[in-house]
Amino acid sequence: MLSKSKRRRLTFLALLVSCLIILIIVNEPPRQDKTTWIPLLKPFNMSLKIKPTNEETSQDSNYTEPKRIWVIIAVLTPPDSSMVKFCQDTRWRVIIIGDDVYRFLWGKTRCIFHGRRDQRGLNFDSVKYIGTIENLPPRKNVAFLYAISQGADIICDMDKADVNVLQNIDLDRKWYMLLKNISVFNPLDHFAYTSSNYKSFTYEIVEDVALTIQTVMPYVNYEKSLENNVTFQFFDHEAPPIVVSSGTLLQFVPISRIYHKTSFWSAVSFSKSSSVDAMCHSQWQQRLIWEIGGTYIVHPSQHQGYPQNELKDKPLAPDCSQYLISWTCPQNLRLTNCMEELSKDVKTFTNISLDVLLSWIKDLHHLNYVVPSRSNIGSGASRYTIAESSRVQLTYSPKVLHSQTLMDKKRDFLESICEDSSIYTAKSDRYKRRVVDDVLLLVVFNLPFYKYVQWIHNMYSLKYSTMAYCGDSKELFLTATEHLNYSLTFIEEDVSAGFYIYQCVSAAIKIGYNVSGILMLSDDVLLNTWKTDELPKDRPWLHQVYTLHRDQSHNWYNWRQPWGQKAFKSVWQELTDLSKNSTAVKNSFGNFERRLQVISKSETGLCFGFEDIVYLPQRIFNEFVFFGDLFAKHKVFLEIALATLLVGLVENEELVMLPGSYLWDNDRTNYERFFNVSHIFMHPFKLGVESKKLAGLEFLCHTYIPYL
């Protein structure tokens, strides 16, 4: 018989062994199917090179292998359903910087979990800072180095709150609004609602932007916190992204950044004890990007606005932006040497920050990462020098946060033009008033007659909060609207008396508004805004479609002109040639041609129609730009181009035909007989002419405006 003391000892040992077994099981990575298993961490080899691209080449000269995207997220909690779903997305691999306590739970997801113990086991010089300084920055550096070692082409340093934004960002986007001639700019002025009616900025639409760093508008306003006057400001979620290049510093600290391979060297994180440190470190990175002629892009946030900044501020240090703008790196130094020199010169960098940087550079060297050569020596100028003939200029005005209600705005408008504004209420009760934020209303001026833009804006902005105007002359537009108590967005584009107004649509798409679609109308279209809610936003709208044959003559006047059959055959030949060298173009053009054949019942069919009002859903934006720019290049007339483009880009059954009235000859002077409140539009209605007539004002005040 065992004594009681021996039994107690054996029981204790048994419990101890059981606990050890449970601990081992809990910390062991879960076994998954071999086809989906993701290793916790691969053993690091100091001679490891970045993985080569797939050597299999396509016969398609324009084919590019999909980029290998890695996402790094710091999450100190267990995985929730949204993160599990995000990790399952096959577009990217996800590294979770987390707490070792949750290793088992994260191991059940498709994420790669990086605990402290895992990272300390990697053979990077940077791991020595884990646990010795602020926890997160050194752990992010190690996660970045690991992603680089695995052959990443793009690395996204994302805040958990921004992962949904990442899913909507086009990482291959070609067109951006380039901010110029401003040395220091707070992007909040672009992305937030403004209380000023007079705020506007000048941009140029640039193509084939070499992406360097893309960021998301942060939800902490560091600049305001530096002023010790934090206020909540609301974001305009439809605002387009912007890009800056050499010569402009952004006065903000992004929380989420997307690094393309040429910018991996700049991704090093430092500890930040104050908002001053955060701002200077952000601009340190931006300034160094100038040295390679790189770009810094800001995308809109999905957050509501700015909350209170949480960082503790020390006494305000001198603004480092002015120093960075004037700073130059000696011509004989390499980029990594410039990084060291600038770190020593910026006073907010500590000795430990410099040590972190040196370890980072050492690790990049061991990974055989090729740091780009300097292309802009000194402060440098913008790398974008666009030929004057191809330059598209844009005056952009942020949305104004109005204190007025819609009814107040409408009453003020009526009182400004109508003798008796009280008559509108009874007629308009049957239609619900709902402001549309997610559609860009694009008003195109066939000729530079901008005098009555105030009337157009007052009428349509009651319904559409996102508006832009387009025409031949920005100078004339600004002159005609300088008396207004608000600024407007204007795109300067060659419309050639209305012949090529679809170029305005292409330019508006390139701007990058975050909208469901674009509704374009000529300035002489009278739009019944109260009826547009009934139309689907995911399908194109147009008024009419007739068919022609590209190899046959026709008695239609415009078909017999240089901008008709001749121009169409020219663009068709270029599309045919392009499709021979590109699988993507071949597929897209094949679908385009097939849809035209279906509607025309002919192998050589195309379309035309009177399209002074059309709507494009977001899903066809990119293809519209591709085909539309080619049509514009060959000077195809708008009534051929727009009808053919919309029919060719979607299946025929998806087209929405708009009810409306086109007036000709004497009918134009008797427009009130043809106006129908159940239609979508009437064309033409010349505001400049009718507003000067008693009958015209009577129609507007008593018949049309009451329904707005």
TrEMBL record:
Pfam families: STELLO. Keywords: Signal. InterPro entries: STL-like (IPR005049). Residues 1-27 form the signal peptide. This is Uncharacterized protein. It comes from Patella caerulea (Rayed Mediterranean limpet).
